[in-house]
Design goal:
alpha/beta; 5-stranded parallel β-sheet; binds 5-amino-5-deoxy-1-O-phosphono-D-mannitol; EC 2.6.1.16; cytoplasm
């Protein structure tokens, strides 16, 4: 059932190219410039008239929501707020009938997300679900939705659910951007064509696996680890840190790279590994200067870079390459090496990768 892989998590990491194809198959017709999503098409006016989108989710799904904030605002020019479902439900939040609430959940059973949906519905908002498990409670409770079609995710650490959630949310943003005219026709077509290249580019990113094993071996005994990224890669930094802590039990924090100087920089010394996502598009120069700040305090840099990068290579202790893509689609690629890095460290430390201590696959109690 693990199809020859040692763990479900590894199998699911490697399934991402095909999972993403399954997510867009039948929905995105790149050559015709069409994105069909019944749940969006049937409610197009609601999306187009939305004053804002409120995303509610937990954990990794919340990170996918954070990526969607960048993409919805960037491409569809709709203001987005991303909320931890557990905070939203108890905060007496302002919810308007013109708000569109998007609930993201792999399992479709998360108690806090479910409660947030009920609250949003009571306040008259239109609620759209992005779930993986077909027929799950959240998929039934929402007014409409889109499944991620990632196939069963068994490993407690979410991997393919995350990248397929981002895929669904990207398709939605592109569709709405096109309908609103906030992206040009030519950009829209370029995005669709690029989305079709993503599975092959993930395959390529997966080829760094052997190199990642070597890097993991160097840092497996670290006590702490920082993850930094900016823009679209900020949520990826959070997700990378979550993956490391939940399966290897190493303390890790994700930060927007520029926030480092407001506190976390005090932690940096020769014992602190810092994973920096420094891909070519998206504040590259600024991230490079963040790397210099870390280096001058003797921190160890593991940089995720765009194929062929040379400047970061000269500064970083290790570089892991990913193929080039559009800035908005970068998280689909930069996430891959971070998943593998955590996986290998956890395996080297002898941890129970698929069922980490204290965690359940779906959190059905608050
Ligand atoms: O099933 P959901 O997407 O609603 O689950 C939300 C979180 O519990 C989940 O993403 C959790 O953070 C994962 N273990 C992360 O790998």
């Amino acid at each position: 059932e693990k199809a020859g892989y040692d763990h479900f998590m590894l199998k699911e990491i490697y399934e991402q190219p095909s999972a993403i194809k399954d997510t867009y198959r039948g929905r995105m017709l790149a050559d015709q410039g069409i994105i069909r999503m019944a749940g969006v098409d049937d409610n197009l006016e609601k999306f187009l008239n939305a004053k804002r989108i409120i995303v509610v989710a937990c954990g990794t799904s919340w990170h996918a929501g954070l990526v969607s904030e960048y993409i919805f605002e960037d491409l569809a020019r709709i203001p987005v707020e991303v909320e931890y479902a557990s905070e939203f439900r108890y905060r007496n939040p302002v919810i308007d009938k013109d708000d569109v609430v998007i609930a993201i959940s792999q399992s479709g059973e998360t108690a806090d997300t479910m409660a947030a949906i009920k609250l949003a519905k009571e306040n008259g908002a239109f609620v759209f679900g992005v779930c993986n498990v077909v027929g799950s409670s959240i998929s039934r409770e929402t007014h409409a939705g889109a499944y991620t079609h990632a196939g069963p995710e068994i490993g407690v650490a979410s991997t393919k659910a995350f990248t397929t959630q981002i895929t669904v949310l990207s398709l939605m943003a592109l569709k709405l951007g096109k309908a609103k005219g906030s992206i040009s026709n030519s950009d829209y077509h370029m995005y669709l064509n690029e989305m079709e290249q993503i599975p092959a580019k993930i395959e390529k990113a997966l080829k760094s696996n052997t190199h990642i094993v070597e890097v993991a071996d160097v840092y497996k005994n670290a006590k702490n680890c920082l993850y930094l990224g900016r823009g679209y890669n900020f949520p990826v930094a959070l997700e990378g840190a979550l993956k490391l802590k939940e399966i290897s039990y190493i303390h890790a924090e994700g930060y927007p790279a520029a926030e480092m100087k407001h506190g976390p920089i005090a932690l940096i010394d020769e014992h602190m590994p810092v994973v920096v996502i420094a891909t070519k598009k998206g504040h590259y120069e600024k991230v490079v200067s963040n790397i210099q700040e870390i280096k001058s305090r003797k921190g160890k840099i593991i940089a995720i870079v765009t194929e062929g990068d040379t400047s970061v290579k000269n500064m970083a202790d290790h570089v892991i390459e990913v193929p080039e893509t559009f800035e908005a689609l970068t998280p689909l690629l930069t996430t891959i090496p971070l998943q593998l890095f955590s996986y290998h460290i956890a395996v080297m430390l002898g941890k129970n990768v698929d069922q980490p201590r204290n965690l359940a696959k779906s959190v059905t109690v608050e």
